[in-house]
Amino acid sequence: MHSSDIQVYDFIVVGAGSAGAAVAHRLSENPRNRVLLLEAGRASHPWSRIPAGAAKLISNPAANWLYTSEPDANTNGRRIPVPRGRLLGGSSAINGNAFVRGQRQDFDTWAQLGNRGWSYQDVLPFFKRMESYEGGDETHRGRSGPLRVTNPPPTDPLFKALIKAAAEVGIPYNSDYNGEHQEGIAMSQATIANGRRMSTAHCYIDPIRKRRNLRIETNASTDALLLEGKRCMGVRYRVGDSAREARATREVVVSAGAVNSPQLLELSGIGQADRLRGLGIEVRHALPGVGENLRDHYAPRTRWAIDAKGVTYNDRGRGLGLVRQAIQWALRGDGMLGMVSAPVRAFVRSREGLEAPDLLLGWVPMLTEMRPKGPVISVESGLTCYAHPMRPESTGTIHITSADPRRAPEIRFNFLSAAIDAELTVRAIRIAREIMYAPALASMQVRELGPGPERTTDEEILDWVRQVGETTYHPVGTCKMGSDAMAVVDERLRVRCIQGLRVADASIMPTLTSGNTNAPAIMIGEKAAAMVLEDAAAA
Predict the structure, then answer these.
(1) Which of 198, 230, 335, 403 has its C-alpha lying 20 to 30 A from 127's C-alpha?
(2) What is the C-alpha to C-alpha distance for residues 85 and 90, in angstroms, rounded to an integer?
(3) Cα torsion angle, 287, 293, 296, 300, sign
(4) Which alpha helices (H) appear in 139-187, and where do they start and end?
(5) 453: which residues sit within 8 A by CB, 6+ positions away?
(6) Is 474 annotated as catalytic?
(7) Residue 371's CB: how many other CB atoms inside 10 A?
(8) What's the count of helices (H) and strands (E) in the chain, helices before strands?
């Protein structure tokens, strides 16, 4: 490639997902910074702006990488779907729209592990900076950030009944689980406004498209980082059949996500030396933690029939009911098409004496069946409740199996390999049962379909979990932040012993946050950009 064909920028951001969009937005605020943003997916998809469109994107290769995990004993030999967004906005463009920061304890734990600058008090300004939210206490909530966050009121009779049932078994209502305390049952706060999805593509990228110092390339697959000695100088990428190079005079920030960030490092010769040599890849820097420490929420969906008529969206969202829902969404932006995928959620403690909640329950007001093109609404009326521990100890891996960048990496979760995860999963399911059998729901004529009332022992319940459990699509940790031998980045997200290279996305999380991971991923992008700019100013 001739030097005249090589583009030169100050900063290159690989991946325009939840974190990468925030990084590019902040780095390009200064018109003197030349920024290249590369996204392997397409610019958009028609279903993305509709919140319920997530159901149309969960199995759609036009918007989704459609990864799957390797089978293992605790998935009963099944391959588990690992959907990842393949659009500007990444998974924020296809997810269920739930907005959950996590709890103070999550980030304080990161700091206690040696990651200075990552305590709750350290990250709170970035959570506030990124959001625009009208409720809650201004001590904890942001008012003027790019990301619109809303909190729908519990007006639906089913949602009211669930909140009342939870109170009957000792779980209080919490008006703001992203505020001072997370514990309790609540309506799900959402990245939805006026019935439209608030992805990072819409909130962070769309407003800055005309910045002259920012170049955005979609359908641009990054094949390798360009290394000279122990410094990252740029990237090699493809747009269709066209091979291109771009150089960064300051830094490359990899924000490709928990699956693709370790993949890119390994393709570039950064990772476990023996693994790379075995694939014919020159080892540029041995870093054993790349691709390790994978965590996700392994979440069985308990299923409940509702015999009372007109209560769930199985009754209200099929046939002519779906037409009415579409009209309601078009006129008012609410109803089934405009709601977060799990409108009610509860953060609960598995036992007395715990400092903070350790279990999450989330309710979807319908039963669905999975089909090749995605979920469809069941004929039978009911609801789904997923129940799982929030901070699992089981860890897995994501590694390349080929030097070909187009070959999907191998994903091994090792779910339930830590005994505590199995114990807490059973406890979460038992708490879901307590709520569903509470007096407030009696008039709805609830019947348990799964696990089923016949499964009473821990082992019977776990056997069912192995048969049906899926993730809640929250992979993290594969480029772990820390100072130990398995850390990939330091507390400033710099790849260890490589100059000019950072990773900024959910892959840097040392442990899972307590809940959905989209909000923390955006916060990581905000904080990463601030650190990049600080270091550039000090250079």
Answers:
(1) 335
(2) 4
(3) positive
(4) 157-168
(5) none
(6) yes
(7) 9
(8) 13, 27
309 CB-contact burial (10 Å; exposed 0-12 / middle 13-18 / buried 19+): exposed
Q: Which CATH superfamily is domain 3-538 in?
A: FAD/NAD(P)-binding domain (3.50.50.60)
Please report the beta strands in 57-151, taking only residues with DSSP state E, as ranges in sequence order.
67-68, 81-82, 131-132, 147-148
- Please calculate the CA angle 377-383-389 and round it to the nearest 5 degrees: 120
DSSP notation for 412-450:
E--TT-SHHHHHHHHHHHHHHHHHHTSGGGGGG-EEEEE
C-alpha separations of 475 from 219, 376, 511, 518 in Å? 23, 25, 11, 11
DSSP state of 131: E
Closest CA to 94 of 61, 132, 47: 47
Cβ partners under 8 Å of residue 339, min gap 6: 51, 52, 152, 190, 192
Element (H, E) at 247: strand 242-254
| Start-to-end CA span in the chain (Å) | 31
Contacts of 229 (CB under 8 A, 6+ apart): none
Q: Which residues pair with 132 in a beta bridge?
A: 148
Helix 104-112 × helix 120-130 angle, to 10°: 130
| 126 sits in which H/E element | helix 120-130
Helical residues (DSSP H) of 207-289, grouped into ranges: 257-267, 273-278
Rounded to whole angstroms, the Cα distance separating 270 from 289 reads 10
**353: which residues sit within 8 A by CB, 6+ positions away?**
none
Enter the tokens of residue 301: 């969906």
The full set of domain ranges for the chain reads 3-538
| CB-based contact 451:84 (threshold 8 Å) | no
Give pTM, 2 decimals. 0.97
Q: Which of 45, 285, 399, 474 is catalytic?
A: 474
Question: Which of 523, 187, 335 shows the shortest CA–CA distance to 508?
Answer: 523
| DSSP-derived secondary structure for 73-87 | GGGTTPPPEE--B-B
Compute the distance between CA of residue 517 and CA of residue 177 in angstroms, rounded to an integer.
15
pLDDT on residue 88? 98
- Which segments in the chain show pLDDT lower than 70? 1-4
pLDDT digits (tens, 9 = 90+) for 199-226: 999 999 999 999 999 999 999 999 999 9
